[in-house]
């Protein structure tokens, strides 16, 4: 596969090491041990599907960036996913849901957005995130007899408490996450990019921002009575059926930072009264005829076009290395 096709936005070595010495390979080894994904699936966000979409800009960010994909009408594909490493994950229970967007020019990727239904990320280091993945996997892995399950659950609660003691920064993210019910539809969920990036204008002025994808239908959570009537993998079928009746749309919103807002820590929210700028609308049209081909690609949060720059956030910087290892393993 060629560069856009493939896998990563540039030739990322996959042996990046965190400050505490964890490599991307070690991170993926730990995710695999905890979550036991199937060999050809993504190591996280295993079940998903890719949809054709169009981006229509509002013009509001034209003065802040020279990125043409944000200022002209652009073709895109979008992958919606359940965050679990398990292909048979249950959409009816709380968990991560993802929305990943690839802006295209002549069918080739120019930039990606990768967002999830967190308001802030529950970790500010890659290790913190992997510790949480392990604790969460323990909590959902409980099977066997009732007594076995009770024992596993108690052990899992202990594990999560241990992670929180070691990573106090995880508390805020987990608290806001636990307070929410699972979404009733991929089309009624808000997805946040969580990391800071910079918009860069033609003169080189930089402005820090975070992005979010806000459903035009509003946020609708799943009610327990309705959940019991649904299949565990209802979300993709629900979206396909909804799209038969017409497109569903999201507003791409940029939250602009002000002096002092951290740009290297995704576990800290910026004040909600910071300016929110609608950059454009993403209209999701239909399941992509090239779904199987796009499934093989990587949606890489560090794939940015001229006019957008990455922050120094260590979690953001680590992600392409981890995604690259996941992609390499699932494609062999
Ligand atoms: C150190 C932190 C993180 C690690 C190690 C990690 C790991 C992974 C891995 C291994 C994959 C599968 C990649 C592939 O095979 O293509 C993945 C996918 C994904 N991750 Fe992360 N992730 C991290 C942080 C985040 C954050 C902060 C977000 C949300 C802003 C996020 C949202 C997603 C989404 C939406 C996907 C699915 C993308 C797709 O549909 O292809 N991840 N992640």
UniProtKB/TrEMBL annotation:
Cofactors (names): heme
InterPro entries, per database record: Catalase, Catalase_core, Catalase_sf, Catalase_SrpA-type_pred
SMART domains (alphabetical): Catalase
Residues covered by the Catalase core domain: 1-332
PROSITE patterns assigned: CATALASE_3
Gene Ontology molecular functions: catalase activity
Stored Pfam families: Catalase
EC number: 1.11.1.-
Keywords: Heme, Iron, Metal-binding, Oxidoreductase, Peroxidase
PANTHER family recorded: CATALASE (PTHR11465:SF9)
Function: Has an organic peroxide-dependent peroxidase activity.
Protein family per UniProt: Belongs to the catalase family.
Protein name: Catalase-related peroxidase
Species: Pendulispora rubella
Lineage of source species: Bacteria, Pseudomonadati, Myxococcota, Myxococcia, Myxococcales
